[in-house]
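Final paragraph of the annual report: two paired records, presented back to back.
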Amino acid sequence: MSEAWERALRAVITGEVDTGPRRRAEYSSDASNYRILPRGVVFPRDAADVRAALDVARAEGLTVTARGAGTSVAGNAIGPGLVLDFSRHMNAILDLDPERRTARVQPGVVLAALQRRAGAHGLRFGPDPSTQNRCTLGGMIGNNACGPRAVAWGRTSDTVRELRILDGMGIERTLGADLSVLAGLPEFTRAHLALIRTELGRFERQASGYGLEHLLPERGASVAKAFVGTEGTCGLLLDATVGLVPVPAATVLVALGYPDMPAAADDIAAIMAVRPIAVEGMDARLVDVVRAHRGGVPDLPRGGGWLLIEIDGATWEQARDKAELLRGSAHALDSRVVTDPAEAQALWGIRADGAGLAGRTPDGRPAWPGWEDAAVPPDRLGDYLREFEALLRDHGLDGLLYGHFGDGCIHVRLDLPIADAPQRFRSFLEDAARQVVRFGGSLSGEHGDGRARSDLLRFMYSREALDAFAGFKALFDPDAVLNPGVLVHPRPIDADLRLAGLRPLPTTGGFVFPADGDLATAVHRCVGVGKCRADTHAAGGFMCPSYLATADEKDSTRGRARVLQEVVRGALDWRSDAVAESLDLCLSCKACHSDCPAGVDVATYKSETLYRRYRRRPRPVDHYTLGRLPRWLGPATRLPRLVNALGAAGPLRRLGLRLSGMDPRREVPTVAHRSFRRSWRQPVRTGDSAPGVMLWIDTFTDAFDPEIAGAAVELIESLGHRVRIPDSRVCCGLTWISTGQLDGARKRLRATVDALAAHVGAGGVVVGLEPSCTAALRDDLPRLLPEDPRAAAVAGAVRTLSEFLEGEPGWRPPDRSGHTVVVQPHCHQHAVLGFAADRRILRGTGAKVIEISGCCGLAGNFGMQRGHYDVSVAVAENGLLPALRAAPPNSILIADGFSCRTQAAQLAGRPSRHLAQFLLDRP
């Protein structure tokens, strides 16, 4: 039975209201260390919905917190009452005026969408935080976001022209440069002129507290700019008019190397003399982490710390001249001027990847926000960094440092003792606050104070200033309805910590988590940065296909992790509907395993959860059919004509699919007339002592596409190798793993290890053809059989076909010049095995290669299961299907994954080839 306020709210808004336990869990945290379960989540469709939600909240004594993408690192986007998610519906660019260089946007507009729209007119929004591919303009206005290029184009507050808001009383106001828009504000300003002039606006990145300096007459008396950075405590944004800037005609990148980061900071004055548009710092340990993750980084100048400086000009020549001037005036050990845009982008990529990978210390411990955003006047940055390093040593803390050095803003995530020693957590934060204040700095430079730092404002501001903040909020929100516990009357910094009290979760015999210790720690890898909400296809990303299809937080990697975090803390049951709903549309594609900066692996968590939920209990019917498919395909390969006839009979097929837990709109794949294993004759062993090559004959290749195995045998034997296959039918257990039947998976994997161990022990390699099965052998096998030392050896001997071929001395790809190839990498290959070797081989053929990014949508059993068809097609529409429609008619589709080939055939009518077949094809 819903509560009265919920029924009242549903009756007056057109958007959605959700008070279920799953939804509340999804919105219980943002990208901060904090957890607060809301009473409900509202998805307003328009300003009328926002007003109605606020009215009901006021009448029922509920608080209201605004939320965009939920990427707030300080805990600004969570609250105990109603959370209003503006990103779902209120995400329109209402107007863009190239002549006036302005845009009017709703709060849920993602910055990247505005940049694309403005870019068509040679314009852009100046501030560009690292989360720009998912953060919203409403969130940026709430936090006064900046990013690397704020050094040239200012903070978000500098871009704001006009804001339309609802204040805490439900009154709509249009904020501009007129203080009289709010009763009492002119008087408030006059009464606090001296305080504002002495304590506020002392340097550009003084983001902590309210930006009251914008109320000063000499600063333009802008209520709109003062509202920026209020973190949802003064009003709910309905739309904003912001300024745009021209895209530079030409830019070059200068990389400067220094002995260390403090030395780099000491050189800021020389850097700023050439008026750069970005100045970013990163230390050697951060670069080392990126190098280890990527396998390499572009060349950097000699040094232990670097500055990346972007310089613009009206022409390339002018930009290069400014770069050479900087190179001559800087006090760096070494330098590089990069004029090639692709190389410059690769260097910027080190900084971008490092920001995500900084969620772990160099020795692999979790690192957390909390003191990730301090700022000092740039001329004091070098000395501050030296003392900050000493403070970290004193507290036994570590982290990877980077930041916006041109603005004096430092980002670092630290291995703070949140879970086991909250008192040490508080002690460090208070010492860090005192230290930054001694340098004339700010607790926050762009992330806001939120729940992470509001309690520390007393170290930075006088009692009079804190009272002024409270008075300013009271003018907008006298009843304290909006985002309580933030900035004014703050919650303690050590209250509501998500990790506090977290206990290890006993194993039940499923997966082991060697990097984390247990599942509870593993699911808390998710710190909420929200990259899973971004469309990263253009950059080669695959995460998160279900969210891109539905645009629902429920279907994001982060949303699922939040629900599982509630499970491991005992707030939700493994067998609850909330957990089932959360995991239902997870494709188990494993993309988050590689694409999530924190290394969240929902596919494994889902398998473990299904194991715990159904162990020794009846399961859904598709777990017995699809989840044990290799068991049924054995007999099917002996009766292919009968099986295919039954699968082709329309009414019978549809009935059979329904009874088997599958979608009747799906076709049944055709079983091969003769399986590979039935036609194979194991070669007679000769006097050659070499172990040969063990070709892993997976169930799908054997039963459906034996010609692929035949092509692989021919290709490998052409290189002088003797090819073997396992003597008996063995299985990687993939379908058991994806349905959480881990006891059955282990049984099959033990048999697999028995079949392969002698070959591997003799120095042989195992070559896989189906990426999902190959990935299971390399990744899942050692985590399901940790007690068997042979499992790790077998996993280490597994190769993809492309990896094997690249390791062959003297082998060169055949010439396929004049061909166009459209290639669909399998998700598991992207996430676990890597596609780099395939990419190099395909390019080495001379063919024109069009690489699809993203999941095909079938994803093993997912797209076949009843209830998943529509989402499966929607996922395919985000990558595979548009690419096939755009491809030349005579192009060749290469898809090594059986799922990918099946999806392309069923949805687009396109046949496909395996890499082995393509390399053997006669032109």
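The closing record of the year follows.
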Amino acid sequence: MRRVLRFSPLWVLALLASILAVSGTPAQAARTDGAATARAAATSVTVDGSGSGRTFDGIGAISGGGGNSRLLTDYPPKQRSQILDYLFKPGYGANLQLLKLEIGGDANSTDGSEPSIEHSKGTVNCDAGYEFWLAEQARKRNPDIGLYGLAWAAPGWIKGGFWSTDTINYLISWLGCAKQHGLPISYLGGWNERGHDDAWYVQLRAALDKAGYGDVRIVADDSGWDVADDMAKDKAFNDAVSIIGAHYPCEGGDGGSADTCSSSKTAQDNGKPLWASENGSQDMDTGAPALIRSITRGYVDAKMTSYFNWPLLAAIYPNLPYSTVGLATAGSPWSGNYGIGANTWATAQVTQFARPGWKFIDSGSGYLGGSESNGSYVTLKSPNGKDYSTVLETTTATAAQTADFTVKGGLSTGAVHVWATDLNHPSAATDLIHTEDVTPSAGGTYSLTLKPGYVYTVTTTTGQGKGHASAPAAHALALPYTDDFDKDAAGTEAKYLSDMQGSFEVQKCAAGRGGMCLQQMAPTKPIEWQDDSDAFTLVGDPTWKNYTLRTDAELAKPGTLELIGRAGTQNRPQSHQQGYFFQISDTGAWTILKSDADGNRTVLMRSSTTALGTGTWHRLALSFSGPAITASVDGKKLGTVQDSSYAAGQGGLGLTSYDLDQFDNLSFTRAKAAAPAAALAVTPSVKSVRRGKDLTVTSTLTVPARGTTADGVNMTLAAPSGFVYDATPQVFGAVKPGHSAVATWKLTAPGDKASTATLTATATYAQHEVAGVLREDTQVEVVNPPPPTGVQDVSDLDFVASTNGWGPVERNESVGGTNAGDGGPLTIGGTVYAKGLGTNSVSDVTIYLGGNCSKFVSTVGNDDDAGTSGSETFSVLGDGKTLAATKTVKGGDPAQQLSADLSGVQTLDLVVGDAGDGNAYDHGDWAAPTVTCSG
């Protein structure tokens, strides 16, 4: 959901048609659309300067928790400055008053990995990443902005886990880097959403004081309100913490409705400020109503005095998680396109009208009409006791309503300025509009009519404003695209590369190569916030289709490198990255695989080539042309596989371990369409087959007349579980140009249920010593037979499946030898039965009924031909549940009657068990079995 601001003179007309009207006389209804409206339900709002409440600490946003500001640094300077102005410049946009920065730890923390300042112990790079740069830009626009540091992950060299002295020392090093950048950090947290260690916070407070950071206030614990319970029990812990911060404390939690908010009595009684230290996770437009509710209702319901939106913006690639959340989107740095969301203007309705240090007026805060369904309001007053602002939201209202204001207690009774944003219908014409100036009556009273779906601010302050910069149109990143990294400074991130796990920075090249290279910097597995994965970075345009990715690569020590292509949707965690991966190890073993966005990986091709070794450079390539995917090393093609699962996506570089491997001379070029080297077709004899019945599948490999001989041709067929067939590969040797090889398989369809089955034929071969793999799918419908009608002898019905402990199940005769039709008459206790089933335990006969039958009846017993030998059990199963059963039946026992209610049964199974003593002479007969069915 990306929206570019565009303005038109018509906004004035839209304003007249949609924004509230105001009046200085409470008894007079406001007018809208040129006609008097019926007076809506009224709320009396008393703005009393002698009243008070908690201190307002400001509204902020979070850069981090997943690399969400990464692409902002790569934007053209003009558009980058515009975006920063919308976020931080007073009187222009969101006017943020607080900024939380992720303290990077080389591990993914939602939709990206932020670099540590200290990948290896003792080596500190204060220019790592972009968070300090962002904070500098924020302070350049608003010198009063408060800065807050918080860690999601931590570098792997830390001993003792996160709650350790090493981590405290690491945080102090980070503060030192901030100081080096001229950034005063006002607030510091512990471990994001991972609870707390009381003693660790006490130790942190002491260490901060000793290191000269006594003015840094600790926030705990960036998780939930239960931290307040432990603070109440532990004075030292309580004294160490300055602010109690909880995440997603409003209704629905992460990304929820925020119709109500909550804190705990213990937290409120503590007396320290209560913050929603992370909230949001909402689309930049549709999330605006929940955002403003979190702010206003956060105070009304829970006395929270600060709100941090996650994230600041989505400056990430659009195939990553949460690509439209935040105050803005900026996912196309090469085009300069960006979008400013309604979240920005909802935020501005607070931040442009009240500053940190103002006081809430509790008597001027509450729910409109006393009900949350009508909306909420909060009033704040300036430290001088003269100015005030009231923020009212009607995001859950369904009709217009009136607010009657009375101003007293020394506050200004002069003109008030009314600003409004239509959150239900975001547009440039209705975002942060100055609608009216109203002069209260002599008694300090005035009224407003409030339309549903809006946020309004009534204020005595001035200086508000709205930026008018607009973004250029988006376009794809042009091919070819190259980067040799030689223009980048050591320790910085390369253009357009977005790290997903680990940290990729520009460093001096190793292994005898001059210039600058890209190096993975995390030498050990980090202390992670979410699951582990390969260390990898993404780059390029998600719309790229046919291209060749090339790079030089050097293995610092034994391990595996990977090239990623057509990288599409990524779900959390980052290992759930859709795309194709070419992996090659120092031994020369290589694989082409595909991964879906659920993290399921499928090997498409696997082989080996000359060992790469370590400490030497090699040229790797991964090429896409339609369904053909080709991997190469040092100009030699290793193999080509056909797969059409993913047609477009980014590129990427990675490694499967935490090593200091390097890459250089990255390039993406258009791939020319190549004529197919061979073609594979797969054809079933039928498109649908009944359960338990046979079909034939043929696969044909054809080499074009002008092609190259395919050597070592093998073909295999893969079918879902339940199909019975010989899966042995069929070998054909060489197939010359203009010729084909044909493989045929006979399969028996599953008997358990109907389904749509995908059958996959695979052909492997080599042409000029380059391995090739072709795969083709075909689908077959496994269907149910027609259900029986009327009264039917079971022996006349089609079996979906049948198994028998000796020979086949016989129809209308007892079991005999191993061949069909070699039994005798069905005889139990001297009575001969013309119809029935002859079995030998363990036996199962499956018949499809389709819910059309109501009753099963049969006589059962051990056939007389076994004499007094044999013992078995008889069971009737409907859809796997036992409907009727006998106890053990022995040879010579009289016949028994067995019946069952078949109402609703789809599949009937007639099972003969061996009674636990083997199946010798268990000649179980179902004599005269019938089903009674409809029709």
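The chain has ten helices and 61 strands. This concludes the annual technical report; the extension proposal builds directly on these records.
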